Amino acid sequence: MKRICVDMDEVIADALTEHLARYNEHFGEQITAEDLHGKWIWDVVSTDRHSVVDRHMRSEDFFEVLTVMPESQRVLRRLQMNYEVFIATAAMEVPTSFNQKYRWLAKHFPFIPSSHIVYCGDKGILRADYLIDDNPRQLRRFQGEGILYSSPHNANVTGYRRVKDWLEVEELFLG
Amino acid sequence: MKRICVDMDEVIADALTEHLARYNEHFGEQITAEDLHGKWIWDVVSTDRHSVVDRHMRSEDFFEVLTVMPESQRVLRRLQMNYEVFIATAAMEVPTSFNQKYRWLAKHFPFIPSSHIVYCGDKGILRADYLIDDNPRQLRRFQGEGILYSSPHNANVTGYRRVKDWLEVEELFLG
Question: What pTM was computed for the model?
Fold first, then answer.
């Protein structure tokens, strides 16, 4: 059975919407996802505001409240019938996320056993056939086939098969 | 550069001594490591006491106070010069350990970057040439070469190259 690793933020968890909501509320602005075409949020907000964005992300309630990406639960359940599915997130970059991410997965993806959850940093450590991730830096390190999950910041990235939503993941792996 | 994954409990962190200390204090007994030849602590204490041992392990201060295995720091530093070294621990089995393990590693192994720390469940997910681990169940799942780190519970396990301490790890990989 082939193995698929699936990233969390921007793939099954909508972190960007929460980032923008907190940023806009804090600074009274109206940045939208469309404004981020080809850029991370860090690239469009001025440097003196980075610490605020960073503090939002490192708070004790950022990751726990994220919205589930549409169809990701249904499609992951289907994938489990034909593939070995692991969730693999670069949680080591944000230690405050450890418990939040664990509870979030238990709540929204209870059908993923904890034995199939991985917190890592460098995703080159994963032994899998596929990695679905929005971050090209991680896909470059990964030694299986990287599948790029579309997010505004990676709009201009090429060199990977790309999926724009979970219906496209379903089509790609279950045809 | 070849990659080595290194387990935490019973390999770089002396969890067994802490388990026995808490158990003996709680029940007024004197179980020693020698009593565990070929057995896990769960096999030698009566079933009605398992919940106490489990509660000890899941407390907020169990993993943080563990003693570092002799020579492990020095040898891991040396290994880093010739190998890519990752720490890989089955932390998903004990979520209360997430933050404790992170702080413990930062304190005792600050030369291991957080990008090279992995919390997982099933170590079959690791892409590495070697895994040094005391748990034969994990070594069986791992797809590189498993190196069995001696611990009382695995005294009778065969089928792997075995190291009894960090001097033997040093000899094996740098000898």
Answer: 0.96
